Amino acid sequence: ALPPGTRVTVEGLFARVPARRKFLKSERAELAACLDVVRRLAMANPGIGFDLRHGGRRLLAAEAASGGVDGRPTRLGALLGHDFAANAVAIDLEREELRLGGLAGVPTFNRGVADHQFLFVNGRPVRDRLLVGAVRGAYQDLLARDRHPVVALFLDVPADFVDVNVHPAKTEVRFRDAALVRGMIASGLRRALDAAGHRASTTVAAHALGAFAVGAYPAPVFPQAPPVPEGSPFPLGTGAVGGQLGEVHSPWFAPVARAETPAPDAAATMAAFPMGVARAQVAGTYIVAETPDGMILVDQHAAHERLTLERLKAAAAGRATASQLLLLPQVVDLDPVAAAHVVEHADAFAALGLDVEGFGPAAVLVRAVPAALGTVDAVGLVRDLADDLAAFDSGMALAERLDAVAATMACHGSVRAGRLLSVAEMNALLREMEVTPHSGQCNHGRPTWVKLAKTDLEKLFGRR
Q: How many CB atoms are located within 10 Å of the residue 91 CB?
């Protein structure tokens, strides 16, 4: 009388094997492990429906999705949440006889632990260090080291290309060409993330709205208005003098110069720019831009840091990194070990436009800096790079070292918080963000911009 399918009931686990039962974890921990196994099976088989119950409660319900492999996005959205589906990019790459598919979260949609990385080989859930390392490499300059991406990747390979019997639980595998697999995963992820452009996680705006909750801040205290003489033609509190409104000067808000009469096609102009049009600068740090359907807040330092990093990486990849010779070479004093590390990596620095050489046992000489950085403190830059080299993992690949070096350089060459920008500078920053990959997050994985839709603003003021 049962419908087609399989029903598995687990109860009294190891009731007759007390030695094994003694080593079980708590009921909650074992249930979580069971749920994880079923969730991974459900991800790998979107055409099959899954229903998991415990103690009369339904913990997982995934209806069968039509379309086989094409039903994966629907199944992943149901199991990992709609936020993941809305903040993920599709992976689709074929190389020789290998195919990689699935979804990968944008860098700003991340977690503090790596428990949301789901990897499958020929439909089998695995926990392979090679695959995890390839994912980490793909996100290496997009996330802070204590943050982890959310991905669900499906790798299909010929049966004779993989050995699934290297682990009793078959959770680890060995590939005939491990380098090919690692490179395919890294390039597939990077290609998809590059295509995402300046996109950032939609959950960032929700967190921002939460910070605007009514009552979160004390009521503002305004200065008392001066008394208005009897018979004044101006209403109380307008502060009008000679027909012009008085002006309140604030160290936090910098109004920008703007045309007295907006252009007739101002709305069309905004619609042409995804990041909107600059309207003001707040606290010398945040750019306020207007869009047809809301407003965007941009962290100018974080955004410019990412733009500078991408310029450095593009120049290094094309072997056309421009250097700016210093009028007078600068000597940087370091301890002997740090100086030796800097000289050892002089070729890597040169690929990014930084020309250094040894200058005795405890100093280095800086002859040129990357032109993309503009005016930069060469001494401070080299000292920070020396600190980075001391902290590098000895097993870090050359590409990862170069990315770490470029990230430090980008930080030194970026627009600082607290610097007032002109309207032209702010709009130029917005336009460059629109065409630069990964500009939605800084070099440490934090968002560079937040969008508040018009409906969000209406909710803040009780209009919805």
A: 20
Residue 357, C-beta contacts closer than 8 angstroms, at least 6 positions apart:
343, 346, 364, 365, 367
Q: Which helix (H) or strand (E) holds 119?
A: strand 117-121
CA distance 457 to 209: 9
Q: Give yes or no for residue 164 having a pLDDT over 60.
A: yes
CA dist., res. 399 & res. 389, Å (int): 14
Rounded CA separation 146/402 (Å):
20
3-class DSSP state for residue 27? Answer: helix
Reported as half-sphere exposure (CB side, CA atoms, 13 A), residue 322 has a value of: 6
Is 283 in contact with 421 (CB distance < 8 Å)? no
pLDDT per residue as tens digits for the range 134-158: 888 888 778 777 788 889 999 999 9
Contact 360, 371 (CB under 8 A): no
Strands (E), 263-384: 277-282, 286-291, 294-299, 323-333, 355-358, 363-370
Higher pLDDT, 1 or 226: 1
pLDDT in tens, 348-363: 788 777 888 888 888 8
CA distance 357 to 344: 9
Residue type, 123: G
